[in-house]
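1st attempt posting a full record on here, be nice pls
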Amino acid sequence: MKIGILVCGHAIDEVAKTHGDYGDWFVTLLAGNGFTFEIYNVVDMEFPTGIGAADGWLLTGSRHGAYEDHAFIPPLEDFVREAYAASVPMVGVCFGHQLIAQALGGKVEKYKDGWAVGRQEYIFDDHGDVALNAWHQDQVKELPDGARVIAGNDFCKYAGLVYGDLIYTVQPHPEFTNPVMAEYIKLRRDPDVYDEAMMDHAAENTKRPNDDALLAREIAAFFRQPREAQNG
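the predicted structure (as tokens):
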């Protein structure tokens, strides 16, 4: 099965030099599941030829807001709607989670209570407590038609969504390893943006294990599940 990775932003240079870019992290996360991958830097207006260029699509995170005015966002929303209408499966993570919801009629906005940075715990259907790294202030605040909530916590009510058997999205970052998170925390510290105590706590939590492997299995199982013939 071929997975097309739609890269919606890039890692900061210092991190990319050591750990690679967003697309690389998802290839590593999903390795060993029999997938092949092709990476498209849609943030740079590098789009696939069409929704049939892969068997499934994965939308990454981004430093941009889904509601902001960037050239790549309207065609990416069109791509999401076309893939959904054609029953081509999609996964979205962080920005991808938000962009898919927005494209299908939901609402994304900045959360009034600030940021979630570092290890967070969510209640997932069928799994209970699941710990994953996160870095976001934007959230899905209104669900589109057809979305069902599968994960959340007190800070982020709609942290995981499914749309039938066609879309699986999560707000946290299973692809963010603890070494990546530690580098981001070190490089992004800014008391005008992030509370210092929160950043200290996040840095300390990079020593604790996360449930990335569980989410990798969930995403792989989602892509591999049998579906009716696609129209793409």
